[in-house]
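The instructor's notes for this session suggest beginning with a concrete chain rather than abstract definitions. Hand out the sequence below and ask the class to guess, before any prediction is shown, which regions might be ordered.
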Amino acid sequence: MNILVDTSAFIAMLYAEDDHHKAARQCWISIINEDNTLLTTNYILIETLAVLQRRFGLQAVRTFNDAILPILSIQWITPEIHNLSLAVLLASNRRQLSLVDCCSFEIMRSMGIEATFAFDAHFAEQGFTCLPPG
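After discussion, reveal the predicted structure:
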């Protein structure tokens, strides 16, 4: 199964103080031990690396780069997906929805991806299955 991994899952998995840390670690172990393809976007990576660097420093970025990045398939946001996602974001008129989220939704729809490893309610609002459930 193809699963898109969101920034919210990366941070929850890596930050022991996160409210979702335990569930994220268990879910991560489960999805990497099954026959899943883990995808993310270059926009999610930029967002994740910025959070890691700001909160924990460059060593956290190095660890992410060495331990997690090699098992991910990166989907690059094209100018067309960027422009469509920006139009969706502006039309939604929702301050808490991000351009990164809108790009993720478009990538998932265009690739037929139904599941995401995320702790962001916007994915469920868009009809995607969030892992872990609940």
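Then share the key points. The mean pLDDT is 95. The CA atoms of residues 49 and 65 lie 9 Å apart.
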